[in-house]
Structure formats: C-alpha cells, structure tokens
Write a structure and sequence with these properties.
It is built from seven helices and two strands; from the N terminus they run αββαααααα. The chain has 248 residues and is mostly helical. It has one domain. It has a two-stranded antiparallel ribbon with strand order 1-2. The chain is globular, with a radius of gyration of 20 Å. The mean pLDDT is 80.
Amino acid sequence: MNIVQFPINTLNYFYEISGVEVGQHFYWQIGGFQVHAQVLITSWIVIAVLLGSATLAVRDPQIIPNGAQNFVEYVLEFVRDLARTQIGEEEYGPWVPFIGALFLFIFVSNWAGALFPWGIIKLPHGELAAPTNDINTTVALALLTSVAYFYAGFTKKGLGYFGRYIQPTPILLPINILEDFTKPLSLSFRLFGNILADELVVAVLVSLVPLVVPIPVMFLGLFTSGIQALIFATLAAAYIGESMEGHH
C-alpha cells in the first residue's frame, strides 16, 4: 500500500510546487484554465529566436561553411559529441535533436534573462523574466526528460526494461522506484534554484550598489547560466543512455 501511495503523493507534490511564485505574475484565462502569460511570452520569444537564427544561418548552405553556418555547425557538432559520449556510439543519433533542443532552449532562456532588459516591457502585473526562472518551466523540462528515458528504455528492451527495478536484488525495488522520481525533482530544482538565485542577487546588488559592483556578478551569472544548460543536457543524455544500457 505504501509503495502505491508513494507515486501518487509524489505527483501531488509536483502539482503543489507548480504554484511556487516569487512576486506578482500576469495570467491569461484560456477556457477554464489559468495560464502563466509571462512564461508563455518569453518562451515564444526564445523559440522564435532559435528558429529564426537557424533558418537564417542555413537558408543558403555552402560546402565550405562560413559565418553563421559555421557557428551553427559548431553547435551541432558540440551537441553530437555530448550525446555520443553519454548515450553511446550506436544509439545517440535519434536523440541529438532532443538533447540539442533542451540545451539550446535552456541556454538561450538563461542568457536572455541575464542580458535582455525585460523590465522595459510593461505588463498589467509583474514583469517578464527568463522562462527558466519559473518552476513550471523547469518541472516541464524535467518531466519531458523522464518520459524520454522511459521511452528509450522501453523501446530498446520492451517489458524487460522493468527488470532493472529488481537488480541487483529485489530488496532494492523501493529505492530503484524512488530514483525515477528523484531524477526529475533534482533536475527541475537545480535549474530553477540557480537561475532564480542569480537574478535575485543581481537585483539586490543593483538596488544597493547600482554602479560597478553588479557588473562582475552579471558576467558570472552568464557563465553559470551556460553551465546549468550544459549540466541539464548532459544529465538528460546520461539518463537516456543508462535506460538503454541497463541499471548501473
């Protein structure tokens, strides 16, 4: 009974933390649902930037790349190396788009939050910020990662995938089940906590010491934002590779 209640309680916990808020927020009412408009607006902007940049960079591909095409191919090769390292030489190919989409969305979102003065865009309530500054976004990305590695393991091994929960001994069944719930929890809170903390620190320093002092902290925030995107994508690829290789 306790084992059955645990997943239900965990899902309820995820639902409760989706209501975590800092400051005021702007909402849209769509049908009978309340939608967090700030997150949707900034997410659409980030997606538009990614799609627009990729389209412009490869609209006239050259055999010998230069300029924007060279940069896009460098990013693609970086994502391929990351996926190949974590998932494996034989299995990594189909997962490059997913890992790349995660990395680029988080990276651009984090940098947009640190570089773009969202405060100049006025809203009825609150102000715009990085999409990853909202717990709903990071939980959604973490749950997508969980679905991805379940799908990878199940398609590779079929029902035999669930045998990993009783390895190396059936006594570890509760712990192995717990692991699948702690993975998205740690992924979501790590990203959300680091981005929120960085923005709060910069905001406090700007209000207290508006000149000179906040600038090094902002540069440090850019560095840590990139590192957080890399960590999230690396862990997502590692979980997918682990699900296909077996329990370690």
